[in-house]
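Weekly sync notes, structure subgroup
Attendees: PM, AL, DS (notes)

Item 1: joint prediction request from the bench team. They want all two components modeled as one assembly rather than separately. Inputs as received:
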Amino acid sequence: MIDIQDLNVVFGHGKQAFHAVRQVSLAVEAGQSFGLVGESGSGKTTVLRALAGLLDRVASVSGEMTVDGESLHQQRSKSFRQRVQMVFQDPYGSLHPRHTVDTILSEPARVHRLDRIEQRVVAALEEVGLDASFRFRYPHQISGGQRQRVSVARALITEPRIVLLDEPTSALDVSVQAEVLNLLMRLKRERGLTYVLVSHNLAVVAHMCETLSVMQNGAIVETMSVQQLREHHSTMPYTRQLLTASLGYDRNAIDAFEEFGS
Amino acid sequence: MSSIRRVADSMTDSPLLSVEDLHVTYHTPTGPVLAVKGVSFELGREKLGIVGESGSGKSQTGRAILGLTAPGGEVRAKRLEFDGTDLLHANKRTMRRIRGGGISMIMQDPKYSLNPVMTVGKQIEEAFLVHSNDSKREARRRTLEMLRAVQIREPERVYRAYPHEVSGGMGQRIMIAMMMIPEPSIIIADEPTSALDVTVQLQVLAVLDDMISERGMGLIFISHDLNLIASFCDRILIMYGGQVMEECRADELAQAKHPYTRGLLNCLPRLDGSQDELAVLRRDPAWLEIREKIS
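Output from the run, pasted for the record:
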Protein backbone atom coordinates (compact mmCIF):
# COMPACT_ATOMS: atom_id res chain seq x y z
CA MET A 1 0.00 0.00 0.00
CA ILE A 2 2.78 2.39 0.95
CA ASP A 3 6.33 1.94 -0.24
CA ILE A 4 9.10 4.39 0.54
CA GLN A 5 12.62 3.92 -0.79
CA ASP A 6 15.63 5.99 0.24
CA LEU A 7 13.73 9.02 1.39
CA ASN A 8 15.90 12.03 2.19
CA VAL A 9 14.65 15.36 3.45
CA VAL A 10 16.93 18.38 3.70
CA PHE A 11 15.79 21.71 5.11
CA GLY A 12 17.72 24.81 4.08
CA HIS A 13 20.66 25.18 1.72
CA GLY A 14 24.44 25.20 1.77
CA LYS A 15 26.04 25.55 5.16
CA GLN A 16 22.72 25.87 6.92
CA ALA A 17 21.33 22.70 5.40
CA PHE A 18 19.80 20.33 7.91
CA HIS A 19 19.47 16.70 6.93
CA ALA A 20 16.26 15.78 8.79
CA VAL A 21 15.55 12.40 7.20
CA ARG A 22 18.32 10.10 5.96
CA GLN A 23 17.82 7.14 3.63
CA VAL A 24 14.52 6.03 5.11
CA SER A 25 12.85 3.04 3.49
CA LEU A 26 9.69 1.39 4.69
CA ALA A 27 6.76 -0.62 3.41
CA VAL A 28 3.24 -0.82 4.77
CA GLU A 29 0.73 -3.38 3.55
CA ALA A 30 -2.94 -2.60 3.05
CA GLY A 31 -4.95 -2.84 6.25
CA GLN A 32 -1.86 -2.70 8.43
CA SER A 33 -0.86 -0.21 11.06
CA PHE A 34 2.72 0.89 10.95
CA GLY A 35 4.34 2.75 13.84
CA LEU A 36 7.16 5.27 13.72
CA VAL A 37 8.75 5.85 17.11
CA GLY A 38 11.56 8.08 18.23
CA GLU A 39 12.44 10.98 20.45
CA SER A 40 11.92 14.60 19.48
CA GLY A 41 14.02 15.60 16.49
CA SER A 42 14.37 12.04 15.23
CA GLY A 43 12.55 12.88 12.00
CA LYS A 44 9.46 10.73 12.49
CA THR A 45 6.95 13.50 11.84
CA THR A 46 9.00 14.72 8.87
CA VAL A 47 8.65 11.30 7.21
CA LEU A 48 4.89 11.55 7.63
CA ARG A 49 4.74 15.07 6.25
CA ALA A 50 6.95 14.13 3.30
CA LEU A 51 4.58 11.28 2.52
CA ALA A 52 1.57 13.57 2.72
CA GLY A 53 3.29 16.05 0.38
CA LEU A 54 3.36 18.84 2.94
CA LEU A 55 7.09 19.53 2.62
CA ASP A 56 7.64 20.11 -1.06
CA ARG A 57 7.76 23.89 -0.75
CA VAL A 58 9.90 24.11 2.36
CA ALA A 59 12.44 21.34 1.97
CA SER A 60 14.17 19.32 -0.68
CA VAL A 61 12.67 15.84 -0.70
CA SER A 62 14.25 13.01 -2.66
CA GLY A 63 13.56 9.31 -2.93
CA GLU A 64 10.86 7.04 -4.31
CA MET A 65 7.43 7.02 -2.75
CA THR A 66 4.60 4.84 -4.01
CA VAL A 67 1.15 4.90 -2.48
CA ASP A 68 -1.64 2.57 -3.58
CA GLY A 69 0.11 1.96 -6.90
CA GLU A 70 0.59 5.65 -7.60
CA SER A 71 4.13 6.96 -7.79
CA LEU A 72 4.28 10.29 -5.98
CA HIS A 73 5.62 13.37 -7.68
CA GLN A 74 6.11 16.93 -6.52
CA GLN A 75 2.44 17.81 -6.80
CA ARG A 76 0.08 15.31 -5.23
CA SER A 77 -2.96 14.43 -7.33
CA LYS A 78 -6.41 15.29 -6.10
CA SER A 79 -7.31 11.63 -5.79
CA PHE A 80 -4.23 11.12 -3.58
CA ARG A 81 -5.48 13.84 -1.27
CA GLN A 82 -8.85 12.13 -1.10
CA ARG A 83 -7.37 8.71 -0.37
CA VAL A 84 -4.75 9.86 2.13
CA GLN A 85 -5.81 11.92 5.12
CA MET A 86 -4.01 13.10 8.21
CA VAL A 87 -4.85 13.61 11.89
CA PHE A 88 -2.59 16.05 13.69
CA GLN A 89 -1.29 16.07 17.22
CA ASP A 90 -2.78 19.19 18.62
CA PRO A 91 -6.57 19.30 18.52
CA TYR A 92 -6.36 22.94 19.62
CA GLY A 93 -4.19 24.06 16.73
CA SER A 94 -5.55 21.99 13.88
CA LEU A 95 -9.17 23.11 13.87
CA HIS A 96 -10.08 26.58 12.60
CA PRO A 97 -11.17 28.55 15.66
CA ARG A 98 -13.80 30.57 13.77
CA HIS A 99 -15.32 27.72 11.80
CA THR A 100 -18.11 25.61 13.22
CA VAL A 101 -17.71 21.85 13.30
CA ASP A 102 -20.14 21.75 10.39
CA THR A 103 -17.93 24.04 8.26
CA ILE A 104 -14.78 22.13 9.27
CA LEU A 105 -16.30 18.81 8.21
CA SER A 106 -18.02 19.93 5.03
CA GLU A 107 -15.00 21.76 3.61
CA PRO A 108 -13.05 18.64 2.52
CA ALA A 109 -16.27 17.20 1.10
CA ARG A 110 -16.82 20.36 -0.96
CA VAL A 111 -13.21 20.45 -2.12
CA HIS A 112 -13.53 16.91 -3.40
CA ARG A 113 -16.97 17.62 -4.90
CA LEU A 114 -18.69 14.88 -2.96
CA ASP A 115 -22.47 14.63 -2.98
CA ARG A 116 -24.89 14.60 0.00
CA ILE A 117 -22.54 16.69 2.09
CA GLU A 118 -24.99 17.20 4.94
CA GLN A 119 -25.63 13.48 5.38
CA ARG A 120 -21.91 12.82 5.23
CA VAL A 121 -21.24 15.34 8.00
CA VAL A 122 -23.89 13.86 10.27
CA ALA A 123 -22.72 10.32 9.50
CA ALA A 124 -19.07 11.19 10.18
CA LEU A 125 -19.97 12.76 13.52
CA GLU A 126 -21.99 9.72 14.46
CA GLU A 127 -19.14 7.47 13.45
CA VAL A 128 -16.80 9.17 15.91
CA GLY A 129 -19.35 9.11 18.70
CA LEU A 130 -20.62 12.70 18.59
CA ASP A 131 -24.30 13.46 18.10
CA ALA A 132 -25.62 15.97 15.59
CA SER A 133 -25.86 18.69 18.24
CA PHE A 134 -22.11 19.19 17.84
CA ARG A 135 -22.52 20.39 14.26
CA PHE A 136 -22.98 24.04 15.02
CA ARG A 137 -20.51 24.41 17.82
CA TYR A 138 -17.11 26.06 17.59
CA PRO A 139 -13.88 24.26 18.56
CA HIS A 140 -13.56 26.27 21.79
CA GLN A 141 -16.96 25.06 22.92
CA ILE A 142 -15.96 21.40 23.02
CA SER A 143 -13.40 19.44 25.02
CA GLY A 144 -9.97 18.28 23.83
CA GLY A 145 -11.14 14.71 23.31
CA GLN A 146 -14.19 15.85 21.37
CA ARG A 147 -11.96 18.07 19.23
CA GLN A 148 -9.74 15.13 18.38
CA ARG A 149 -12.87 13.19 17.44
CA VAL A 150 -13.79 16.03 15.08
CA SER A 151 -10.27 15.83 13.58
CA VAL A 152 -10.80 12.12 12.99
CA ALA A 153 -14.23 12.79 11.47
CA ARG A 154 -12.68 15.38 9.16
CA ALA A 155 -10.13 12.83 8.00
CA LEU A 156 -12.86 10.23 7.39
CA ILE A 157 -15.23 12.39 5.41
CA THR A 158 -13.38 11.91 2.10
CA GLU A 159 -13.51 8.14 2.68
CA PRO A 160 -9.73 7.68 2.65
CA ARG A 161 -7.90 4.36 2.51
CA ILE A 162 -4.88 5.60 4.39
CA VAL A 163 -4.84 7.76 7.51
CA LEU A 164 -1.62 9.34 8.72
CA LEU A 165 -1.72 9.82 12.49
CA ASP A 166 0.75 12.26 14.01
CA GLU A 167 0.76 11.77 17.80
CA PRO A 168 -3.05 11.67 17.79
CA THR A 169 -3.43 11.25 21.55
CA SER A 170 -0.38 12.82 23.16
CA ALA A 171 -2.25 16.01 24.09
CA LEU A 172 -5.07 14.07 25.75
CA ASP A 173 -5.70 12.74 29.25
CA VAL A 174 -5.21 8.98 29.54
CA SER A 175 -8.92 8.22 29.93
CA VAL A 176 -9.67 10.26 26.79
CA GLN A 177 -6.70 8.68 25.03
CA ALA A 178 -8.25 5.25 25.60
CA GLU A 179 -11.50 6.40 23.98
CA VAL A 180 -9.74 7.85 20.93
CA LEU A 181 -7.50 4.78 20.51
CA ASN A 182 -10.55 2.51 20.69
CA LEU A 183 -12.27 4.68 18.10
CA LEU A 184 -9.27 4.49 15.75
CA MET A 185 -9.06 0.71 16.17
CA ARG A 186 -12.78 0.27 15.45
CA LEU A 187 -12.64 2.46 12.34
CA LYS A 188 -9.67 0.50 11.07
CA ARG A 189 -11.52 -2.77 11.52
CA GLU A 190 -14.75 -1.55 9.94
CA ARG A 191 -13.24 0.29 7.00
CA GLY A 192 -10.07 -1.66 6.42
CA LEU A 193 -7.97 1.48 6.82
CA THR A 194 -4.20 1.57 6.65
CA TYR A 195 -2.54 3.61 9.37
CA VAL A 196 0.87 5.16 9.75
CA LEU A 197 1.14 6.20 13.38
CA VAL A 198 3.84 8.52 14.67
CA SER A 199 4.31 8.47 18.41
CA HIS A 200 6.91 8.79 21.12
CA ASN A 201 4.86 6.46 23.29
CA LEU A 202 5.95 2.84 22.83
CA ALA A 203 2.90 1.50 24.65
CA VAL A 204 0.52 3.31 22.27
CA VAL A 205 2.40 1.94 19.26
CA ALA A 206 2.42 -1.57 20.76
CA HIS A 207 -1.32 -1.29 21.22
CA MET A 208 -2.14 0.00 17.74
CA CYS A 209 0.40 -1.39 15.30
CA GLU A 210 1.74 -4.63 13.86
CA THR A 211 5.12 -3.34 12.74
CA LEU A 212 7.24 -0.40 13.79
CA SER A 213 10.43 1.41 12.97
CA VAL A 214 12.55 3.13 15.56
CA MET A 215 14.07 6.39 14.33
CA GLN A 216 17.02 8.36 15.61
CA ASN A 217 18.74 11.37 14.07
CA GLY A 218 16.70 11.09 10.89
CA ALA A 219 17.50 7.45 10.17
CA ILE A 220 15.70 4.21 10.89
CA VAL A 221 17.66 2.35 13.56
CA GLU A 222 15.59 -0.78 13.60
CA THR A 223 12.39 -2.20 12.12
CA MET A 224 10.62 -4.89 14.09
CA SER A 225 7.26 -6.50 14.73
CA VAL A 226 5.28 -5.40 17.75
CA GLN A 227 5.55 -8.97 19.02
CA GLN A 228 9.33 -8.59 19.05
CA LEU A 229 8.98 -5.28 20.85
CA ARG A 230 6.74 -6.83 23.50
CA GLU A 231 9.22 -9.61 24.12
CA HIS A 232 12.08 -7.12 24.25
CA HIS A 233 13.70 -8.86 21.27
CA SER A 234 15.62 -5.85 20.11
CA THR A 235 19.11 -5.98 18.68
CA MET A 236 19.88 -2.27 18.84
CA PRO A 237 21.07 -0.66 22.09
CA TYR A 238 19.14 2.52 21.29
CA THR A 239 15.84 0.64 21.10
CA ARG A 240 16.63 -1.27 24.26
CA GLN A 241 17.29 1.97 26.11
CA LEU A 242 13.99 3.44 24.90
CA LEU A 243 12.24 0.29 26.09
CA THR A 244 13.87 0.45 29.53
CA ALA A 245 13.00 4.14 29.83
CA SER A 246 9.38 3.57 28.91
CA LEU A 247 8.94 1.13 31.77
CA GLY A 248 9.20 3.90 34.36
CA TYR A 249 11.70 5.30 36.84
CA ASP A 250 14.46 2.96 37.91
CA ARG A 251 17.34 4.80 39.57
CA ASN A 252 19.93 2.12 38.82
CA ALA A 253 19.01 1.69 35.17
CA ILE A 254 19.42 5.42 34.55
CA ASP A 255 23.14 5.40 35.38
CA ALA A 256 23.63 2.93 32.56
CA PHE A 257 21.98 5.22 29.99
CA GLU A 258 24.18 6.05 27.05
CA GLU A 259 24.26 9.14 24.88
CA PHE A 260 23.31 8.24 21.33
CA GLY A 261 24.54 11.51 19.89
CA SER A 262 24.69 12.76 16.36
CA MET B 1 21.87 28.01 56.07
CA SER B 2 18.63 29.90 56.63
CA SER B 3 16.91 29.88 59.98
CA ILE B 4 13.92 28.11 58.46
CA ARG B 5 16.04 25.14 57.55
CA ARG B 6 17.61 24.87 60.99
CA VAL B 7 14.27 24.83 62.78
CA ALA B 8 13.01 22.20 60.37
CA ASP B 9 16.08 20.08 60.99
CA SER B 10 15.56 20.11 64.71
CA MET B 11 12.14 18.48 64.49
CA THR B 12 12.71 15.64 62.13
CA ASP B 13 9.66 13.65 63.07
CA SER B 14 7.01 16.28 62.66
CA PRO B 15 5.76 16.89 59.14
CA LEU B 16 7.34 19.64 57.06
CA LEU B 17 4.01 20.72 55.71
CA SER B 18 0.46 20.22 56.93
CA VAL B 19 -2.51 20.83 54.72
CA GLU B 20 -5.96 20.36 56.17
CA ASP B 21 -9.24 20.87 54.33
CA LEU B 22 -7.83 23.10 51.60
CA HIS B 23 -10.35 24.82 49.35
CA VAL B 24 -9.61 26.95 46.28
CA THR B 25 -12.57 28.75 44.76
CA TYR B 26 -12.63 31.01 41.73
CA HIS B 27 -15.44 33.52 41.60
CA THR B 28 -16.49 33.91 37.99
CA PRO B 29 -19.39 35.80 36.37
CA THR B 30 -21.17 32.46 35.93
CA GLY B 31 -20.79 31.53 39.60
CA PRO B 32 -18.08 30.06 41.80
CA VAL B 33 -15.80 27.36 40.39
CA LEU B 34 -14.53 24.96 43.05
CA ALA B 35 -11.05 24.00 41.88
CA VAL B 36 -9.93 22.30 45.10
CA LYS B 37 -12.48 20.90 47.56
CA GLY B 38 -11.21 19.84 50.96
CA VAL B 39 -7.76 18.41 50.29
CA SER B 40 -5.77 17.28 53.34
CA PHE B 41 -2.31 15.76 53.57
CA GLU B 42 0.95 15.96 55.44
CA LEU B 43 4.38 15.96 53.88
CA GLY B 44 7.48 14.62 55.59
CA ARG B 45 10.93 14.01 54.17
CA GLU B 46 9.59 11.96 51.30
CA LYS B 47 8.51 12.07 47.68
CA LEU B 48 4.77 12.59 47.57
CA GLY B 49 3.11 12.27 44.18
CA ILE B 50 -0.14 14.02 43.28
CA VAL B 51 -1.64 12.45 40.19
CA GLY B 52 -4.77 13.37 38.31
CA GLU B 53 -6.15 14.32 34.92
CA SER B 54 -6.48 17.87 33.69
CA GLY B 55 -8.87 19.82 35.85
CA SER B 56 -8.41 17.57 38.88
CA GLY B 57 -7.03 20.44 40.96
CA LYS B 58 -3.54 19.00 41.37
CA SER B 59 -1.72 22.11 40.16
CA GLN B 60 -4.09 24.41 42.05
CA THR B 61 -3.21 22.53 45.24
CA GLY B 62 0.52 23.09 44.63
CA ARG B 63 0.07 26.75 43.82
CA ALA B 64 -2.18 27.44 46.81
CA ILE B 65 0.53 26.20 49.19
CA LEU B 66 2.91 28.90 47.95
CA GLY B 67 0.23 31.60 47.78
CA LEU B 68 0.43 31.63 44.00
CA THR B 69 -3.28 31.23 43.32
CA ALA B 70 -4.27 33.53 40.47
CA PRO B 71 -6.13 36.77 41.28
CA GLY B 72 -9.81 36.11 41.76
CA GLY B 73 -9.13 32.83 43.48
CA GLU B 74 -10.00 32.41 47.14
CA VAL B 75 -7.99 30.01 49.31
CA ARG B 76 -9.45 28.63 52.54
CA ALA B 77 -8.13 25.91 54.82
CA LYS B 78 -8.44 24.71 58.38
CA ARG B 79 -4.67 24.50 58.44
CA LEU B 80 -1.94 25.33 55.95
CA GLU B 81 1.25 25.21 57.94
CA PHE B 82 4.87 25.05 56.93
CA ASP B 83 7.41 24.63 59.70
CA GLY B 84 5.30 26.40 62.30
CA THR B 85 4.29 29.25 59.98
CA ASP B 86 0.66 29.70 59.03
CA LEU B 87 0.90 30.20 55.26
CA LEU B 88 -2.63 31.53 54.97
CA HIS B 89 -2.09 34.47 57.27
CA ALA B 90 1.62 35.11 56.77
CA ASN B 91 2.52 38.64 55.69
CA LYS B 92 4.11 39.33 52.33
CA ARG B 93 7.59 39.59 53.78
CA THR B 94 7.37 36.18 55.42
CA MET B 95 5.97 34.68 52.23
CA ARG B 96 8.87 36.12 50.21
CA ARG B 97 11.29 34.49 52.63
CA ILE B 98 9.50 31.14 52.42
CA ARG B 99 9.15 31.15 48.63
CA GLY B 100 12.48 29.87 47.39
CA GLY B 101 14.08 29.75 50.84
CA GLY B 102 11.66 27.30 52.45
CA ILE B 103 9.47 25.97 49.66
CA SER B 104 10.50 26.12 46.04
CA MET B 105 8.61 25.35 42.87
CA ILE B 106 9.76 23.82 39.58
CA MET B 107 7.43 24.45 36.67
CA GLN B 108 6.76 22.44 33.56
CA ASP B 109 8.55 24.33 30.83
CA PRO B 110 11.99 25.87 31.38
CA LYS B 111 11.49 27.91 28.21
CA TYR B 112 8.89 30.02 29.95
CA SER B 113 10.26 29.96 33.48
CA LEU B 114 13.77 31.24 32.74
CA ASN B 115 14.46 34.88 31.93
CA PRO B 116 15.43 34.92 28.24
CA VAL B 117 17.64 38.05 28.45
CA MET B 118 19.72 37.05 31.46
CA THR B 119 22.52 34.50 31.49
CA VAL B 120 21.91 31.22 33.29
CA GLY B 121 24.66 31.96 35.81
CA LYS B 122 23.25 35.36 36.79
CA GLN B 123 19.77 33.90 37.29
CA ILE B 124 20.99 31.18 39.61
CA GLU B 125 23.15 33.68 41.51
CA GLU B 126 20.15 35.93 41.92
CA ALA B 127 18.15 33.08 43.46
CA PHE B 128 21.00 32.54 45.91
CA LEU B 129 21.57 36.19 46.83
CA VAL B 130 17.89 36.92 47.51
CA HIS B 131 18.04 34.44 50.37
CA SER B 132 21.53 35.10 51.74
CA ASN B 133 23.95 37.91 52.60
CA ASP B 134 26.97 36.28 50.99
CA SER B 135 29.23 38.06 48.51
CA LYS B 136 28.84 37.88 44.76
CA ARG B 137 32.03 35.88 44.60
CA GLU B 138 30.62 33.28 46.92
CA ALA B 139 27.40 33.30 44.87
CA ARG B 140 29.39 32.54 41.72
CA ARG B 141 31.30 29.75 43.41
CA ARG B 142 28.10 28.20 44.76
CA THR B 143 26.39 28.54 41.37
CA LEU B 144 29.13 26.65 39.56
CA GLU B 145 29.10 24.02 42.30
CA MET B 146 25.34 23.66 41.91
CA LEU B 147 25.57 23.36 38.10
CA ARG B 148 28.04 20.55 38.62
CA ALA B 149 25.70 18.93 41.16
CA VAL B 150 22.88 18.78 38.59
CA GLN B 151 25.22 16.86 36.25
CA ILE B 152 26.04 19.65 33.83
CA ARG B 153 29.35 18.75 32.30
CA GLU B 154 30.62 22.19 31.34
CA PRO B 155 29.39 24.45 34.15
CA GLU B 156 31.56 27.40 33.06
CA ARG B 157 30.08 27.41 29.57
CA VAL B 158 26.51 26.98 30.78
CA TYR B 159 27.06 29.72 33.38
CA ARG B 160 27.65 32.19 30.55
CA ALA B 161 24.92 30.81 28.26
CA TYR B 162 21.48 32.29 27.70
CA PRO B 163 18.41 30.06 28.15
CA HIS B 164 17.79 29.71 24.38
CA GLU B 165 21.27 28.25 23.96
CA VAL B 166 20.56 25.18 26.08
CA SER B 167 18.42 22.09 25.41
CA GLY B 168 15.18 21.29 27.20
CA GLY B 169 16.77 18.72 29.50
CA MET B 170 19.61 21.10 30.35
CA GLY B 171 17.06 23.89 30.94
CA GLN B 172 15.23 21.76 33.47
CA ARG B 173 18.52 20.89 35.24
CA ILE B 174 19.19 24.63 35.42
CA MET B 175 15.75 25.15 36.96
CA ILE B 176 16.53 22.47 39.54
CA ALA B 177 19.86 24.15 40.32
CA MET B 178 18.12 27.49 40.75
CA MET B 179 15.46 26.06 43.05
CA MET B 180 17.96 24.10 45.12
CA ILE B 181 20.53 26.81 45.71
CA PRO B 182 18.65 28.66 48.51
CA GLU B 183 18.44 25.26 50.26
CA PRO B 184 14.69 24.98 50.67
CA SER B 185 13.26 22.08 52.65
CA ILE B 186 10.38 21.42 50.25
CA ILE B 187 10.29 21.33 46.46
CA ILE B 188 7.00 21.42 44.59
CA ALA B 189 7.55 20.12 41.08
CA ASP B 190 4.58 20.65 38.75
CA GLU B 191 4.95 18.35 35.71
CA PRO B 192 8.69 19.11 35.73
CA THR B 193 9.61 16.72 32.96
CA SER B 194 6.47 16.37 30.84
CA ALA B 195 7.98 18.38 27.99
CA LEU B 196 11.08 16.17 27.78
CA ASP B 197 11.92 12.98 25.93
CA VAL B 198 11.56 9.91 28.07
CA THR B 199 15.27 9.13 28.59
CA VAL B 200 16.10 12.77 29.33
CA GLN B 201 13.10 12.89 31.64
CA LEU B 202 14.44 10.01 33.71
CA GLN B 203 17.94 11.48 33.84
CA VAL B 204 16.57 14.79 35.12
CA LEU B 205 14.47 12.98 37.70
CA ALA B 206 17.52 11.03 38.86
CA VAL B 207 19.28 14.34 39.55
CA LEU B 208 16.26 15.58 41.50
CA ASP B 209 15.93 12.27 43.35
CA ASP B 210 19.59 12.21 44.44
CA MET B 211 19.51 15.80 45.70
CA ILE B 212 16.26 15.28 47.61
CA SER B 213 17.53 12.20 49.41
CA GLU B 214 21.02 13.62 50.11
CA ARG B 215 19.59 16.78 51.58
CA GLY B 216 16.65 15.16 53.36
CA MET B 217 14.05 17.30 51.67
CA GLY B 218 10.36 16.82 50.96
CA LEU B 219 9.07 16.70 47.40
CA ILE B 220 5.58 17.19 46.06
CA PHE B 221 5.58 15.78 42.55
CA ILE B 222 2.56 16.75 40.47
CA SER B 223 1.97 14.77 37.29
CA HIS B 224 -0.61 13.17 35.06
CA ASP B 225 1.66 10.18 34.44
CA LEU B 226 0.59 7.30 36.69
CA ASN B 227 3.44 4.98 35.74
CA LEU B 228 6.05 7.62 36.33
CA ILE B 229 4.62 8.65 39.72
CA ALA B 230 4.26 5.04 40.83
CA SER B 231 7.88 4.29 40.04
CA PHE B 232 9.35 7.60 41.26
CA CYS B 233 7.46 8.56 44.42
CA ASP B 234 7.03 7.02 47.89
CA ARG B 235 3.38 7.88 48.40
CA ILE B 236 0.60 8.96 46.03
CA LEU B 237 -2.54 11.06 46.27
CA ILE B 238 -4.97 10.44 43.44
CA MET B 239 -7.06 13.51 42.71
CA TYR B 240 -10.26 13.91 40.76
CA GLY B 241 -12.66 16.85 40.61
CA GLY B 242 -10.71 18.85 43.20
CA GLN B 243 -10.75 16.05 45.78
CA VAL B 244 -8.42 13.31 46.90
CA MET B 245 -10.01 10.05 45.80
CA GLU B 246 -7.45 7.77 47.34
CA GLU B 247 -4.09 7.76 49.03
CA CYS B 248 -1.69 4.86 48.78
CA ARG B 249 1.93 3.83 48.88
CA ALA B 250 3.48 4.08 45.44
CA ASP B 251 4.49 0.43 45.34
CA GLU B 252 0.91 -0.55 46.16
CA LEU B 253 -0.73 1.45 43.38
CA ALA B 254 -1.44 -1.73 41.43
CA GLN B 255 -3.67 -2.85 44.32
CA ALA B 256 -5.53 0.46 44.52
CA LYS B 257 -9.16 0.13 45.53
CA HIS B 258 -10.98 3.22 44.36
CA PRO B 259 -12.88 2.76 41.07
CA TYR B 260 -11.41 5.99 39.68
CA THR B 261 -7.83 4.84 40.30
CA ARG B 262 -8.65 1.40 38.93
CA GLY B 263 -10.26 3.03 35.90
CA LEU B 264 -7.19 5.15 35.22
CA LEU B 265 -4.88 2.16 35.54
CA ASN B 266 -7.01 0.02 33.25
CA CYS B 267 -7.30 2.52 30.43
CA LEU B 268 -3.54 2.76 29.90
CA PRO B 269 -2.26 0.87 26.86
CA ARG B 270 0.50 -1.46 27.98
CA LEU B 271 3.64 -2.54 26.24
CA ASP B 272 3.03 -6.13 27.29
CA GLY B 273 -0.73 -5.94 26.84
CA SER B 274 -2.95 -7.13 24.03
CA GLN B 275 -4.58 -5.12 21.26
CA ASP B 276 -8.04 -5.67 22.63
CA GLU B 277 -10.29 -2.75 23.29
CA LEU B 278 -9.00 -0.56 26.10
CA ALA B 279 -11.19 -0.22 29.16
CA VAL B 280 -12.91 3.13 29.22
CA LEU B 281 -13.21 5.12 32.40
CA ARG B 282 -16.81 5.50 33.54
CA ARG B 283 -17.08 8.51 35.80
CA ASP B 284 -19.46 8.14 38.69
CA PRO B 285 -20.88 11.42 40.09
CA ALA B 286 -21.17 9.65 43.44
CA TRP B 287 -17.38 9.76 43.84
CA LEU B 288 -17.63 13.48 44.42
CA GLU B 289 -20.88 13.61 46.39
CA ILE B 290 -20.07 11.13 49.13
CA ARG B 291 -16.91 12.91 50.07
CA GLU B 292 -18.60 16.28 50.24
CA LYS B 293 -21.02 14.91 52.81
CA ILE B 294 -18.23 13.53 54.97
CA SER B 295 -16.30 16.77 55.14
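Discussion: Residues 69 and 136 of chain B are 33 Å apart (CA to CA).
Action: AL to compare against the crosslinking data before next sync.
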